[in-house]
Structures are given as C-alpha cells and as structure tokens.
Amino acid sequence: MLILSSEGKLISATANKSEMRLLKELRDKYIVQIACGDHHSMALSKGGELFTWGQNSHGQLGVGNQIAFTDKPQLVQELRGIPLAQIATGGTHSLVLSLSGAVYSWGKNDFGQLGLGDTENKYYPSYIRALEHKKTVYISCGGEHTAVLSQDGLVCTFGAGDYGQLGHNSTQNELTPRIVAELFGARVSQIACGRWHTLVYVPSLEKVYSFGCGAEGQLGNGDTSNQLIPLPVELPSDWVNGGKVNQGNSTSKKVIKIIAGGNQSIVLCLKKKNPYVTLNGTATAEDKEVDKWISNSDPKQWENIKKTIWLIFSSEACVNGSFLDKSRDKHFRTSKEISGMDMSAVLLFYEKMNKKPRVFQEMISAVEKLLSSLSSSPSSPEALRLYLIIPVLLRGQDNMSDCLLDRLAAAILSLQQKDLKVLESLWSNLEISFFKDLVSMYQRVSRINLSLFIIQARSSEEVTCEPHLNRALKMLQILYQVNSSAGFKIQENNFYIPEVKRIWGQDWHLNEGPTYEQWIKNEISKRLEMRALLKLTAYPCIFDMQDKIVVYEIDRQILFGLYNTNSFLPRGPWFLEIRRAHLVDDVWQNLRSAAPKTFEKFLQVQFVGEQGIDVGGLSQEFFTIITRELCCPEAQIFRCFEDSNLIWFPSQVPGSEDTFFLIGTLFGMALYNMKIAPFHFPLALYKKLLDIPPTLEDLKELSPTEGRNLQEILDEDYDDILENMMIDFTIMKKQGGSIVSIELKENGADIPITKHNRKEYVDAYVNYVFNESVKKPFEDFRSGFLRGCPAKKWKLFLPIEFLTVFRGHTKYDWKLLEENTKYKDYEKSDQTIKNFWTVFHELPEEKKKNFLAFLTGTDRIPAEGMRHFQFTIADFKKENPDLFHPIANTCYHVLMLPRYSNEEILREKFLNALEFYEKFSLS
C-alpha cells in the first residue's frame, strides 16, 4: 500500500509489516501520482520523473530484466523527457500516458494487455502505435487487461477477455486496442479496471456501466454472473436528481468518481469538486503561473518562485510539457513531423521573462543545469521539444547565451542518428521565422569563433578547429541540409560566414597585380591560412560561390604542384597539340594515350600551324569549339530535346564504346583547368554528379511537354478521368527504327494508374529517364569526369553553382566592364581610351559578346560574375599596326590597342579586326 500526502511525500506499508514509513529514497522528490500493482509500485514526481520498485518477474518495472526484485525506487530512463499526465499499473504490467496522448506499456503480455499486437513481455516502455493520434486522456489497468479513454468519450480495451471484461460481447483476448462498440453514442468521462471487470461512467446519462467478472458481486447488478457487454449499475435513487445532490435546503452539482478494486467497485458521490478527482501530472509553465512570477514583488514569495522555476526549467519533461498547442487539440497530433507546440507561446513567454532580469536569469541558470544532463537517446518526439524551445529562450546575444548555445549544440550532436533525424524533421516543419532565428544564432556564434580561429591560423603551425567552432559549424551544416530538404525555406546566404574571406583576401582572382600562382609564391605567410581554409571545407554551407571557387582554386594549385606545405614544386604543363580540321579525332587520340598523372598538369593548347601561345585564351577557345562540335545534332552523340534545346544521354552508346568516357574526361578537364565548357546539359546532370536524385522539376526542364503531362496526372482530382487516360506503368520509347513499350515495374502493363499509385508512377518515370535508361553512358561519363578532374573540392558546389561554373552565364553589364578595366601605358583619361569606349558602347549586343569571345575565348561570363571580370588595355607599341594583320588570336584579357587619336579611324580598325576574328573563329 502507498499513501501520498498533500505535500507530495510518499508513505509505504507492506502486507507483512503493519508499520508505515516515509519512503526516504524519494524524500527530496515532490510526488504527484502513485500506482500499485500486485507486487510492484510506481510514483511520478512533479519534475516528470517516473520511479518504479518491487518485483520485476515480467519486466513490470520498465528498467530491463537484469534485476528480479528491488525495494529501492528506480528511475525509468526510457521515459526521460516525456511529459507524463498519468501512470497506471495492472497485476504485472504498467502503462503511462503523456500530455499529448501517447501511451507506453511494459511488463507481462501473455494476453495482449500491452496493446502492442503480440504476446511478448516487454522489459522497457514500448509505444502503443495503435493509439497514435487517438487523443487518449485516461488509462486504467486491470489484472491482465487494459482500458483507455479518448477525449471524445470513446473507450478502447485490450488484453484478457475471458470474463467479458473487454466489453466486446465475447470472451476472446484482444492484442490491440479495440473500441467498445456497445458504448457508441454514449460519451464516457471515466473508466476504471478491476482485476477481471471494468467500470465506465456516462455523465450525460448519469449512469455507471459495468462488465466482466461478477463472481463477488463487483458488477453491482444484484447477482454473481458475468457480463460480456456494458450494462448499467443500479445507483441509489436519492443520487439521481436532475444532476443535483441534496445539501439541506439547497442543491449543488454533484461529482461522481468511480473506483474499481480487485473484486470490488466503488462509486463516490462528492458534494463538491475534490482535488482527488483531478490527477496532478508533470509541472509545466502555465500562463497564470508565469504571470505570478512576473508580477510578484513580495520578497517572501521569491524563494517559492525560484523553486518552481528551477523545478520546471531544469527538467526535460517539464520543459517538453510546456507551451503545448492546444488549439483544436493540435498537441494530440504530435509525431516525427509535428512538435505539437505553440512556438508563438514560447516567444511570448521569452518576451515576458526578459522584462524581469531577476526572474529571467533564474530561468537561464536552470536551463544551464538542464543542458548538462540531457539524454542522448530520447524515446519520443515529445522528448525533443526542448531543442526547439531552448533556442528561443537564448535569443540574447551575450556571452552566456553563446556558451549555452554551444552546450545545446553539443547535446544535439550527441543524439543518436535516429533521434537526430526526427529533430531534423521537426526543424523542417518549424515556422520560417523560428527556423531563421535558429540559423542566425549559430551563424553568429560561428562568426565569433571563426574570427578567433583565423588569429590562431596566422600564428600557429598546428591549425586545428576548436571543439566549440566545430560544433557551431556542424550545427549550421545540419540546419543547411534541413533547409535544402525542405525546399530552401530561407535563402542560402543566411548560412554564409563572411569572415572566411579574411583568410584569403577578396581580390586575388582579379587581374590586378600578380597572377594567382605568383600570389601564392609571393605570399608564403598565407600558407597556414590556406591550410585553415581547407579544414573549413567540411562545412560547405558557410561558403558563398566566390569562396568555393577560391577553395577549388587552392585544391587545383596543390595538384599542379604550385603549392604544398613545404615548398613550391611546379609541374610542367600538358601541351595538347591538335589540328583544327581534325579536332575531335586528335583529342580522342591524346586522351586515350594519356597517363593518369597527365591530368594533374595544367593544360596548354597548341593549334598546329598557328602562332598563338596559350596563356589561357587558346585553351578556353578549344573547349568552346569542341563543346559546340560534340553537342550539335549532326554529331549524333546526344539526344537533343527541341522544346528545351538541351541534351541528354542516349539509351544506347553510339559509335565507339568509350565515347562517353572520353567526353566525361574532357568535361572533367574543363573543370580542372577552370574553363567554361557550355555543354547544354540540364541541371539533372550536375545533381547526379553530386549524388542528388533528379526530380520531376528536372524533367520539366529537360522535356517540358513530358514534365507538364506528368504534372497533370499528379494534379488530376477525378478517378474517372485518370481511368480514361488509360495509362499504366509503362513508357513508350524509340529503339532503332521502332517504338517499344518498357515496363517501369514488374507487370507494369497490367497496373493502371490511379490516384493511389500515380506518385509512384511519376517517380518511376523520372527515374527511368534520368537513371535506368542511361545507366551505362552516364557511368562511363562519370568515370571519365573523375579521371579528367583529379581535384575533389568541386563537391562543395551546389548543383546550380556547378552548372554555372561549367556554362558561365550571360548576365552582361558593359558599364561594369568599363569600370573594372585596367590600363598599361595608358591613362583612363587618354583620348584613345575615350574613343575606344565610345565605339564599344555603340556596338550591337552581339558584337559586344563577340569582342568578349576575342578577349577570353568564350562569350560567357565566368561564374563569379561581371563584377569580378576585368581585362587590361595595353599600348600596342608598333609603328605600323597594320603590318601585323590579318593575324587574329584570342588574347586572353589583354587588348593591345594602338594609339588612334581619331575616333573614326579607331572605329574602322576595331570593327575590321573584330569582323576578321568572327570569320576566323566561326570557320
């Protein structure tokens, strides 16, 4: 027997000992609920801890099966962090109910009394999935059966049914919860289970119903027979008085309470509402209580307020049970995707508390204690709510909040993978403002820590990321992945860390001063900083595209041999000699015979019979020309989609067996040498190279008609229209000269598309186009790509960034080009320069783009954008420039401009030279 005092103290007595004693092991705990089984006991503390003790023959203590008996209360670790509303014990099984209606059971299960669908004993709490989202508000355990009550007044029973105690008009056992059909239409408000019988109370009818074993008259029906269905108990006539109970000359609303003992039943008719009727559960931060904390100025009350604040905010369960979203019972829908919380209530609470520094600081101190003892394996989404709540409470930007954010990060990163995945799902469903705030906090902490890291990197040979920096950056990267999976709720720049630019300086890639190679050689002191930068690549989300290009450049230069940790050992270039007239054949021959190490060298192209020297322009021109040749329809290498002007791999490899391996190699070489190669691939290619599955959106880009048709199937509301489409799991494709039907799944031709399977059909269709149908050519292409690009840091790029690096872009700003231009032996104010820009800006758009191609070998802007693109105008110091025509080679960012003081002469000469180059390059 257990007795609970009004002060939360627990007194125990046993059958063989008549004396009572205070349970000293729990004397420091404020107990709010108790429950007794045949030979085991449970107690729930106000701080949300569940303790069990007694016999453990069937696992009824919920602490494993290592001990058979204990007289000392054991904390049920598996339920840590779950805010409990009620506890209940059966003969040898136990149940608990959370504030959000989740039910857990453990112990003996011979008859299915745990409701888990089997008859195996459970030694730890197990979630009853069959009751998920059923809005359970009360639980009761019999000897070997269980009853649960929903908020809607429905009763479910399960377990042993040999006496009819389940109320299903049978004596069969039930392994999973089953609604008592006989009670349909009667809204039940109370349930109570005896050893082999069950009681329910229907307030609208003012009736108690009983069913099950009646051998000792416990059903209250006047005999000892069993009842298989609920039947009313005959209550004293003076209790039934229109819902009133007599109190002398006045009447008041009566309160009925039902109790089922082993073989007894008790119905209490209370003259007034009694605390006994309402169960106290885990303490939570309620509005009324919080308002008292804020408004109370009585020093005498401060100690009690402090105790309450510490009780709640140093307890996982109490924090998790606070701020529930009870509007429309949303907290009952708690799942791996839904937290069941009202985040706006958390924010309102923070704002209230923040106005009272003394109260707020007490709460923060309690949170600090909480963060040092969090569980690494929460057993429920309910136990993960605090990871959403605490960041809101730490919105301040002082050192203390940063320290606590680091502790929070440590706790999150120590979660088991399955629990972290649930938390990520909860994050992805947060309102955007709260998610953005969370990202902002860890971005701010990362920036502070990174600044310190940079100082260390410049002064120490041993460059290491401090644990707190790693934790903040890991958090940012995880949140970035959540953001990406959720379809980018917030922009990527929310994750960038601008301090990264302090490591490498922002202007190395502009053509101002030394080249990048010279910059590295001249800046030996930067060696440690570059090593530091490479360490940070474990967290790609912190880099903007410009930063990623810098990191990739460093990766290339290390392989080039222009930089290593000890000295500069530059490799010689790879000279690729090719004939324009036999461009593809010469390239294929060179690629087939090249040794693997050859691709680590930087490329220099020599067109046979031409005077041009490759300082970057000829190799760019080479990639521009060969890309054009390989992608044209006449080459018959790729599938060309007319409605998108994009290319994709064919289902069968044409021509030579290594065609796509060689094209992939060429593709990789372009990236390794940072040359634009405008293959007209869709974004899906870059996703596949980065191991990101293509989607329907990618098919819409490649083949708008097919994509639109599939979207219409997904959007169709009527089954009969889908039936009339007569679609099945097949796809019609050209093979050779005929059309063939290909099944997207086994027996696909016999499976019509319906509303239930259309998503599967669309996914299979997309998978076929981008994966199954092109498996061989794409794998060849990927293998070639990895051969042609030995650098690895390209994996930092997002698919759209990856695409832009290859294709460049066409966002021209000619005024910006003029602003960025540098001059050698010229001044910006010289008349020749003024004349040149006057002539240039008068050119039509196509002529300007062709001039760009003359300067760089391509008419596309590099990935960094026009702002970072510049060229140099130098004085062409020849007495008669005309003697050097008609030679026209790509000059790569340098325009040799003779001093033509007359604008008309300059216009004529410039246009003539440009026209000659256009004819030359197009031929």
What's a concise summary of this model?
With 923 residues, the chain is an alpha+beta fold. It has 5 domains: 2-270, 7 Propeller (Methylamine Dehydrogenase, Chain H), CATH 2.130.10.30; 287-430, no CATH class; 574-694 and 777-807, Hect, E3 ligase catalytic domains (Hect, E3 ligase catalytic domain fold), CATH 3.90.1750.10; 697-770, Hect, E3 ligase catalytic domain (2-Layer Sandwich), CATH 3.30.2160.10; 814-922, Hect, E3 ligase catalytic domain (Hect, E3 ligase catalytic fold), CATH 3.30.2410.10. It contains 28 helices and 32 strands.
Structure description:
There is one protein chain. The protein has 923 residues and is of the alpha+beta class. The protein folds into five domains: 2-270, Methylamine Dehydrogenase, Chain H, CATH 2.130.10.30; 287-430, no CATH class; 574-694 and 777-807, Hect, E3 ligase catalytic domain fold; 697-770, Hect, E3 ligase catalytic domain (2-Layer Sandwich); 814-922, Hect, E3 ligase catalytic domain (Hect, E3 ligase catalytic fold, 2-Layer Sandwich). Helices cover 36% and strands 18% of the residues. It has 28 helices and 32 strands. It has a four-stranded antiparallel beta sheet, with no helix packed on it. Helix 4 (343-354) runs parallel beside helix 6, helix 8 (417-428) packs across helix 10 and helix 9 runs antiparallel to helix 10 (467-485). The protein is elongated, with a radius of gyration of 38 Å. The model is unreliable at 245-251, 506-514 and 884-890 (pLDDT under 50).
